[in-house]
Design goal:
Elements lengths: L2 H7 L7 E13 L5 H8 L2 H12 L4 E2 L5 H7 L13 H11 L1 H4 L3 E6 L4 E13 H6 L11 E6 L2 E6 L1
Antiparallel strand pairs: 1-4, 1-5, 2-4, 3-4, 5-6
C-alpha cells in the first residue's frame, strides 16, 4: 500500500501541507564544466519533475514559491506544444532539460572529491496539500521514489513513495 493511501486513511485536514522531494546523482568529472548537464541527461530527475508538475498541475508549488508549470507557461516555454494532449509530460521534460538553468525548479550540488572528480546531485522539492494529492488520485508510479513528509497530530510522518 502506498504512503498516499495511508494519508487517505489518516483522515487529515485536506489543507495539510505535504512536502515532496526527489533526488538522484552521478559520478562526474567536474573539471570540464559539463557535470551538471551530464547529471540532467543521465538521471531521471527531470522526468520525475515533469511527471509531478503535469500530474498535479496548478496544485504544486516549488520550494521557494510559485508553480513550476505556470512559470513555464508565463515564460512562453510551452508555446510550441502541439495541443493534441499526447506526450505533454515528455514535452515538459524536454523543455526543462533544454532550459535547465532558466526553469530553476531543480537544484544541483557537486561534491568535489579532488581537482577533477566528484558527485553531482540533482534535487527537486515541492509542496502541495493532502487534499490535492487525494483529489487528483495521484498514481503510486508518478511519485515512486519521492520522499514525502507531512505533519500529523501524532508527529511528523515521512515516507518514501
Amino acid at each position: 500500500m502506498s504512503g498516499f493511501n495511508n494519508l487517505r486513511e489518516m483522515n487529515l485536514d485536506p489543507n495539510t501541507q505535504v512536502k515532496l522531494s526527489y533526488s538522484d546523482g552521478i559520478d562526474v568529472v567536474h573539471c570540464h564544466g559539463t557535470h551538471v548537464e551530464e547529471a540532467v541527461e543521465q538521471t531521471d530527475v527531470v522526468e520525475k519533475v515533469a511527471e509531478a508538475i503535469t500530474t498535479l498541475g496548478v496544485n504544486i508549488e516549488g520550494e521557494y514559491g510559485g508553480n513550476p508549470l505556470e512559470s513555464l507557461r508565463d515564460n512562453m516555454l510551452l508555446d510550441d506544444y502541439p495541443r493534441d494532449y499526447s506526450g505533454f509530460t515528455d514535452f515538459v521534460a524536454n523543455v526543462i532539460r533544454e532550459n535547465f538553468y532558466e526553469v530553476e525548479c531543480i537544484e544541483h550540488h557537486t561534491e568535489q572529491f579532488d581537482y577533477k572528480r566528484g558527485f553531482t546531485t540533482l534535487t527537486a522539492n515541492f509542496k502541495t496539500t493532502v487534499g490535492d494529492i487525494l483529489a487528483n488520485n495521484v498514481s503510486y508510479l508518478t511519485f515512486s521514489g519521492w520522499e514525502a513528509s507531512v505533519k500529523t497530530p501524532a508527529g511528523n510522518l515521512s515516507f518514501t513513495v
